[in-house]
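Minutes, project huddle
Topic: does the predicted pose make sense with magnesium ion bound?
PN asked that the exact inputs be recorded in the minutes so nobody has to dig through chat later. Recorded below.
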Amino acid sequence: MILYGLRGVGKTVLLTRLRKDAAARDWLTVHVEAGSRRSLREMTGEGLYGPLSDLARPSAGSQLLRALKTALSFKASYDSTGTWSFGLDLSGASGGAANSGVLLTDLTKVVHDVAMAAGESGAGLAVLIDEAQDLTADELTTLAAIMQSVATDDVPALFALAGLPSLPQTLAEAKSYSERFRYHPIEKLGRSEAEAALVEPASGEGVRWTGDALSHVVAAAGTYPYFLQQFGQESWNVADGTTIEVNDARLGVALGQNHLDNGFFRARWDRTTGAEKSYLRAMCPEGDRSVATGEVAARLGRSVGSLGPARATLIHKGLIYAPDHGIVAFTVPGMAAFIDRQVP
Ligand SMILES: Nc1ncnc2c1ncn2[C@@H]1O[C@H](COP(=O)(O)OP(=O)(O)OP(=O)(O)O)[C@@H](O)[C@H]1O
Ligand SMILES: [Mg+2]
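Predicted holo structure (tokens), as shared on screen:
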């Protein structure tokens, strides 16, 4: 399952929900976030330790013992100093050997053995990877191959990857059969969903929104979950009594916008160099829509090639992505409008 979309649309919220749903069904869950300096191997290995040690018990069946032994060998493949102890004698168990050093071989083995052990009790293994666009090309290729083999071999494992809109394209380049994955674009909400996101939690606390107040916040947020959350929260805070009026909403949106400008947007803007800022400004006339790299170059009076480094670092910093070859777009809704508000 591949969840992809812009910043702040709710990918992490959904992934967390998946984890909770899986855990409620007694599935073993590994929830990791790519983009730190840790490799996929290490993230997965460390993510497995907690759930596996919860399962380890003297009465463990042979499948579980096998999974534990394989997980131990997997740990040894990236950490020669640390060892895990599940407090069990695994010397007689089968399994292990997930330490060949070849990621595909080792990860397949550990996923397979752990999922089969979970499958013994009718459950499975859920591997949830956030910010998956930050995995290396090798790691994505490996994951694509494992996801494929898991499906073919009827191993009870679910992989859910969440990332920026570039993720499907990156996966497609990683492995040809990636078209078999289930892709879910996560987008801004519909109008009635956006209203429900404001009205329902408020009414649970005995508070109502007037129609005008609601329209104002929904319009200002452009129905983006993160902005709805921010503007809704500020409106709630300024309102007195049990009704959120249009004046509360106006003030709430202004405060929320200020908050976003000084946090959400500024944090990203401040991470860019002068050359990168020029590139971003040249993207602004399109607003939130995508723009051809040739058009950006023309506006700056430069060649596309000479702007390659700025473009690459902006992608690396997560500010823009390439929806297609020769096209760039902001990863953050409203970024262009924010940049327009900044004095050059
Ligand atoms: N279903 C939801 N219910 C309530 N709030 C939500 C929901 N989905 C998203 N939000 C709000 O939007 C915010 C952003 O959601 P989330 O962090 O999941 O986005 P994201 O797509 O992971 O963004 P990023 O790409 O920046 O990681 C949440 O902190 C929350 O305030
Ligand atoms: Mg997220």
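Observations noted during the meeting:
- Residues 5, 7-13, 197, 225-226, 229 surround adenosine-5'-triphosphate (ligand 1) (CB under 6 Å).
- The mean pLDDT is 91.
No decisions taken; revisit at the next huddle.
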